[in-house]
């Protein structure tokens, strides 16, 4: 029972990270109806920036904050410079751009920092908490994730800018008619998604270690999470993230073994797409022909 | 009346290769209600869309004396032009109140927005009851009231109304037009109304223009237009 509880709690910690990344995916999806395949690499790149800052002697939390700001700016710049020109291009063209972005970020990082795996510090103490069920980093990661999710929720729910972003994502034409600068709202969405991703990267790096390919698996889990929750439902994506994290850990430890963990994500993705494409909480769209 | 609010000269517009407006010209006085009448496809909706930069145009549009043609929609709104679009443009997943607050998005005087919410609720008490409800679940009439109210939240100088009567029961249309008249009289909001329901529009308006295939073919006061034989036969049906 102890071991089981331990796996569930550890699953919640990684699940929070999947939830953050899934939320980032859903935010971009809602605004553009596209899945950003480069979301993970953007997060990875931001994490390397954090590593550089910390290695240069900056204390953890200032480096954390600076990285989040950097990730935000990176997201905005990517939208303005790379995504904007293909805004009206066919879906496949945009997907190719996303994949190119993924490969470029991955190779540039490898070129700058090499592919050697690096340890990444955790800001939390090394002793376990809750009677050794959970490492302090896991507890801390859950805490950080929850704070991020709450901030994002409050931003969208209670601020005029958050409302404008929701309006722009839903109905761009009407949004323009009330004076919302829709293009900038999209860029802002990219910035926010990248910032959330950056936090997820910094929280997952102490667990998976820092290397240019560290987000590959994480992004797959995040896809699974977003799909399980319904790709157009932010709250569903967060729920899906925690669910996938726990499932992955528990199944990995007791049923299928650690080597097949990633298969859990793939099975979930295929399962959801074939059985219930709209996810648990997504809207079903019916089109008249 | 303090002069010309809107002046459109020789305006052309096209969707791709399909030309819709062929040099349309008209003007409206500050504080008045002007209506553009015409059959389907005459270019009424396109004219309104052209005024707020939603289609590419050639020609000149002056609002309060300055050129506004070629400006982005978002900037036209900032001059105080509220467009109540064809199809109502409801943000269906947002609440009624959120829809209304979006109408005031560009306003700098945040402190007056609360009072203006109450003001539009006093015109449309139904919207107050539906305040926290998802706007997509409102009836057609309520959504039209919401669209008009969203426009009013801008405190506009000019409102562009695209077929406000479309799809509504006659009783609701009468109620809505009554409120438009009140708003025009009390708040000095000028209105440019595009309508297929010529009889209703002529009752509301001070001036009218008749548009056929992208040109103005007749203009005058509402009374003159109403008494015109051709208009009576083709648009009023008696």
Tell me what you see in this structure:
The complex is a heterodimer of chains A (289) and B (238). Chain A is mostly helical and 289 residues long. Chain A is 74% helix and 1% strand. Chain A has helices at 2-32, 39-55, 60-83, 91-113, 136-158, 160-170, 172-177, 182-208, 215-229, 234-254, 261-275, and strands at residues 128-129, 134-135. Chain A has a two-stranded antiparallel ribbon. In chain A, a hairpin with a 4-residue loop joins β1 (128-129) and β2. The longest helix of chain A is centred in the N-terminal third of the chain and has 31 residues, at 2-32. Chain B is α/β, with parallel strands linked by helices and 238 residues long. Chain B has helices at residues 44-51, 73-78, 96-103, 113-123, 125-129, 140-152, 170-187, 198-204, 222-227, 229-236, and strands at residues 4-15, 18-29, 33-37, 57-63, 66-67, 81-84, 158-162, 190-195, 207-212, 215-221. In chain B, the strands form 2 sheets. A 6-stranded mixed β-sheet of chain B has the order 6-7-8-3-9-10, with helices on both faces. A 4-stranded antiparallel β-sheet of chain B has the order 2-1-4-5, with helices on one face. In chain B, α3 packs parallel to α6 (140-152). The model of chain B has no long low-confidence stretch (mean pLDDT 90).
Q: Strand tally of chain B, please?
A: 10
Q: How many distinct beta strands of chain A?
A: 2
Number of helical stretches of at least 4 residues of chain B: 10
- What percentage of amino acids of chain B are in beta strands? 25-35%
State the oligomer.
heterodimer
Low-confidence stretches of chain A: none
- Helical percentage of chain B: 25-40%
Order of adjacent strands in the largest pleated sheet of chain A: 1-2
DSSP helix count of chain A?
11
Largest interface: A-B, 17 and 24 residues
Mean pLDDT of chain A comes to 89
Low-confidence stretches of chain B: none
Task: Report the major sheet of chain A.
Answer: 2 strands, antiparallel
């Amino acid at each position: 029972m102890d071991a089981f509880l331990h796996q569930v709690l550890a699953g919640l910690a990684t699940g929070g990270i999947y939830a953050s990344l899934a939320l980032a995916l859903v935010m971009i999806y809602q605004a553009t109806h596209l899945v950003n395949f480069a979301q993970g690499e953007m997060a990875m790149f931001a994490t390397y920036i954090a590593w550089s800052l910390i290695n240069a002697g900056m204390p953890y939390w200032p480096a954390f904050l600076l990285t989040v700001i950097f990730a935000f700016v990176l997201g905005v710049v990517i939208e303005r410079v790379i995504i904007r020109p293909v805004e009206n291009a066919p879906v496949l063209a945009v997907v190719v751009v996303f994949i190119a972005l993924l490969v470029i970020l991955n190779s540039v990082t490898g070129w700058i920092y090499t592919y050697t795996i690096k340890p990444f510090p955790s800001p939390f103490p090394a002793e376990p908490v809750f009677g050794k069920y959970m490492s302090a980093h896991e507890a801390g990661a859950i805490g950080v994730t929850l704070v991020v999710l709450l901030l994002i929720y409050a931003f969208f729910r209670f601020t005029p800018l958050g409302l404008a972003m929701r309006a722009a994502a839903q109905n761009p034409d009407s949004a323009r008619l009330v004076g919302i600068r829709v293009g900038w709202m999209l860029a802002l969405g990219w910035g926010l998604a990248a910032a959330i991703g950056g936090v997820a990267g910094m929280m997952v790096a102490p667990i998976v270690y820092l290397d240019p390919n560290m987000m590959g698996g994480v992004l797959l889990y995040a896809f699974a999470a977003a799909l399980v929750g319904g790709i157009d439902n932010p709250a569903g994506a967060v729920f899906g993230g925690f669910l996938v994290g726990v499932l992955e850990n528990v199944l990995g430890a007791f049923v299928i073994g650690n080597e097949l963990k990633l298969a859990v994500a793939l099975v979930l993705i295929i399962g959801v797409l074939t059985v219930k494409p709209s996810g648990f909480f997504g809207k079903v769209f019916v089109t008249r022909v | 009346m303090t002069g010309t609010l809107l002046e459109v000269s020789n305006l052309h517009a096209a969707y791709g290769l399909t030309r819709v407006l062929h040099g349309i010209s008209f003007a409206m006085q500050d504080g008045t209600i002007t209506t553009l009448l015409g059959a389907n496809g005459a270019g009424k909706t396109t004219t309104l869309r052209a005024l707020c930069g939603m289609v590419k145009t050639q020609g000149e549009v002056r609002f309060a004396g300055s050129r506004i043609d070629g400006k982005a929609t978002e900037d036209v709104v900032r001059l105080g032009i509220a467009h109540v679009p064809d199809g109502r443009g409801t943000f269906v997943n947002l609440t009624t109140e959120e829809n209304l607050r979006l109408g005031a998005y560009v306003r700098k005087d945040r402190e007056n927005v609360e009072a203006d919410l109450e003001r539009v609720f006093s015109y449309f008490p139904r919207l107050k009851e539906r305040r926290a409800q998802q706007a997509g679940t409102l009836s057609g009439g309520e959504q039209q009231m919401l669209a008009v109210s969203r426009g009013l939240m801008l405190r506009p100088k000019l409102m562009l109304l695209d077929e406000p009567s479309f799809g509504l029961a006659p009783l609701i249309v009468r109620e809505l037009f009554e409120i438009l008249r009140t708003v025009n009289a009390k708040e000095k909001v000028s209105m440019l109304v595009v309508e297929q329901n010529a009889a209703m529009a002529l009752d509301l308006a001070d001036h009218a223009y008749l548009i056929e295939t992208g040109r103005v073919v007749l203009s005058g006061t509402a009374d003159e237009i109403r008494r015109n034989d051709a208009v009576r036969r083709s648009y009023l049906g008696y």
